[in-house]
Amino acid sequence: MKLEVSLRKQLGPFNLAADFDVTGERLGVFGPSGSGKSTLMHLLAGLLKPDHGSIRIDGDTLFDSAKGINLPPERRRIGVVFQHAHLFPHLGVRRNLLYGYRRIPASERKIDPQDLIDVLGLGPLLERDVVSLSGGERQRVALGRTLLACPRLILLDEPLTGLDEKLKYQIIPYLQKVFAEFAVPLLLISHSLNEMRLLTGQVLEFAGGNYIGQTSAEELARRGMGTSQIGYINLLELRNPRLHDGLFCYGWGDQEIVLSAGADQAVGMFELSSKDITLFKRHPEATSARNMLRCKVVKLFGAGNRIGVELDCGGRQLVSQVVAEAVHDLGLQPGSEIIAVIKASAFRRLY
Amino acid sequence: MFEFTPTDWQAMELSARVAITATLLSLPFGFAAAYLLVFSRLPFKALFDGLINLPLVLPPVVVGYLLLLLLGRNGWLGGMLNEFGIQIIFTWKAAVLASMVVGFPLLVRSIRIGMEGVDRQLIQASRTLGAPWYDTLFSVILPLSGRSLLAGASLMFARSLGEFGATIIIAGNIPGVTQTIPLAIYDYTSTPGGDRMALALCAVSVILALAVLIFNEGLVKRFGREQSR
Fold first, then answer.
1. Which of A124, A270, B5, B173, CA to CA, is 20 to 30 A from B97?
2. Interface test with B, best of A71, A82, A90 (most B CBs within 10 A)
3. How many other CB atoms sit within 10 Å of the CB of residue A273?
């Protein structure tokens, strides 16, 4: 999907200026609150009228102040998943889901409702009232409702912000699954770096109402390492756990990782801070840490007064952080062999 | 007990007919007016709002007189309707019109409060799901403000049952034709020895009004239950 945007909007003292051309299927809009993310979402969806400028998707003009074009929201075919679901309280789950589906011509109904209901696990909820749903269930129904309207782009406006940490990571696999399965381009608006990294590729960065530039979620995370207390967060997808002495042994590529916070599911997503990876020049004889991985240094990058070390562990990527002096002591340079030592308790399970 | 005369029965029947007709005829207009006031960006909205609410604060007699000037044989609208052989004043239709004008602000106010309570983001959600504004109006706004619509309709119905001032001016007080309960009571009170019958009709008024209120309460409650289901 190609999105060409050039917009100006003044709302009281707030000024939004957004000019960008971007091509991709999984886009993110990242910025602190008050940076204009939500305003941009409203402008794209047609819920707010820009002062001037233009919006084009795949060559179709949705808005152009010079030509006097301003398609109403229902003709833009841009779906929105709102922060607070906004399900219709007077309709049950089934009728909420089919609200948009019934309003598009049959030729545009590319998604079969039953398929979607299966993927999102909504079957048991169909006959329920929306008021009786939990926060996570509401958000799943809202997602299904938007997808069934078969839009050409879905805007996700901080869809996980209202949910608690645990629920949030229960929803993310659903999001990944539906967007992979039904191939709808998405634009995620969020200020959470982890959500960005798990769901998007390219990221449009905003600050103070201005478009800053295009980057990637990975790049943002590396840049944040210098200022963040928690360092760079490695996201590891681990498979096939096996219980061993009260600890979980997971497969990670052709390596095995031992950790304490496991679960029975076949696939799990774990986070690991760059601060919790200690680097050794030679293989230590014995350590209290349970994981000693042979790695090759790929690249060093600076962030603040810290230095990030990108490692290649049997084809998988890991980022550790060290101070400048350690680079010298360990003789770190691209290509050097190194041992990464990680405690079993350093991993945190996301889902 | 009381022996009602045939004219009394006619007055009761007429009152009910006038109130029902006035309420039903006003509903679509009331709904449209409330929608415009809440959701549109009309120029002169304050003026529009004022005009709708005017009958609420004007003496009904003034409303009646203005209607009479408008609809009378020499009136601007009356003359036009006369050409088509339609006469409104001094028929039961005039009583309906009087009730409509006087009760309209109550109806609009009630619906408006309901519409203002509809979450704007539900409306936005409906639009982004492919519903044009009129679709959103009937599939989201109407069901979500249905309670206030019912409340407004019964309020207006009750007000119409009691309409007197404007009615007596444009519909007159013709027994069996335009004489509603309030007008019949007025007649009895100005007739020597009519006190007993006036009181009896007052009792009918009270019972009718009470019935409407109870009916309304039940309806609103039931509607509320269905909403939250």
1. B5
2. A90
3. 20
Segments forming the whole domain that contains residue A60: 2-224
Reported CATH class of domain B6-227: mainly alpha
Q: What is the pLDDT of residue B51?
A: 93
| A181 shares its domain with A255 | no
Confidence class for position B226, pLDDT limits 50, 70, 90: low
Domains: count for chain A: 2
A52/A138 same-domain check? yes
Task: Mark whether A165 and A64 lie in a shared domain.
Answer: yes
Answer with the one of A173, A193, A224 that is the final residue of a domain: A224
Q: What is the SS3 assignment for B50?
A: helix
**Mean pLDDT for back-to-back runs of 10 residues, chain A (351 residues):** 93 91 93 88 94 94 94 94 91 94 90 90 91 90 94 92 82 88 91 89 90 90 83 90 89 88 85 92 86 92 88 90 89 91 91 85
Residue A86 is nearest to which of B125, B133, B135, comparing CB atoms?
Answer: B125
Which residues of chain A are within 8 Å of residue B133 when distances are taken between CB atoms? 72
Tell me which chain B residue has its CA closest to the CA of residue A128.
B229
- CA-based Rg of chain B, rounded to a whole angstrom? 20
Mean per-residue pLDDT of chain A: 90
CB contact under 8 A, A129 and B229: yes
Using the beta-carbon criterion (under 8 Å), do A88 and B122 form an inter-chain contact? yes
Examine the pLDDT at B225 and tell me if it is beyond 70.
Answer: no
Q: Give the residue extent of every domain in chain B.
A: 6-227
Residues A332 and A251 placed together within one structural domain of the fold: yes
Instruction: Give the H or E element holding residue B159.
Output: helix B146-161
Q: Do A84 and B121 touch (CB under 8 A)?
A: yes
Which among A88, A129, A145 is the nearest to B140, CB-wise? A88
What proportion of chain A, given as a percentage, has pLDDT over 90?
A: 55
Contact A248, A260 (CB under 8 A): yes
A266 in the same domain as A200: no
Which residues of chain A have a Cβ shorter than 8 Å from any chain B Cβ? Answer: 45-47, 72-74, 76-80, 82, 84, 86, 88-90, 99-100, 103-104, 129, 131, 145-146, 149
pLDDT in tens, B187-210: 999 989 888 999 999 999 999 888
Find where tokens 């960008």 sit. Answer: A20
From A224, A249, A278, give the residue that closes a domain.
A224
Find the closest chain A residue to B143 by CA distance: A90
DSSP A281: S
Q: Is A113 helix (H, G, I), strand (E, B) or coil?
A: helix
ipTM exceeding the 0.85 mark:
no
Q: A2-6, A246-250, B22-26, B39-43: which has the minimum mean pLDDT?
A: B39-43
Provide the pLDDT for residue B229: 45
Q: What is the CATH number of the domain that holds A263?
A: 2.40.50.100
How far separated are the first and last CA of chain A, in Å rounded? 30
Judge if A82 and A204 occupy the same domain: yes
Instruction: Verify whether the Cβ–Cβ distance A86 to B129 is below 8 Å.
Output: no
Residue B81 structure tokens: 């309707």
What residue of A is the nearest CA neighbor of B119?
Answer: A86
Residue type at B179?
Answer: Q
3-state SS, residue A17: strand
Q: Which of A78, A90, A104 sits opposite B128 (nearest CB)?
A: A78
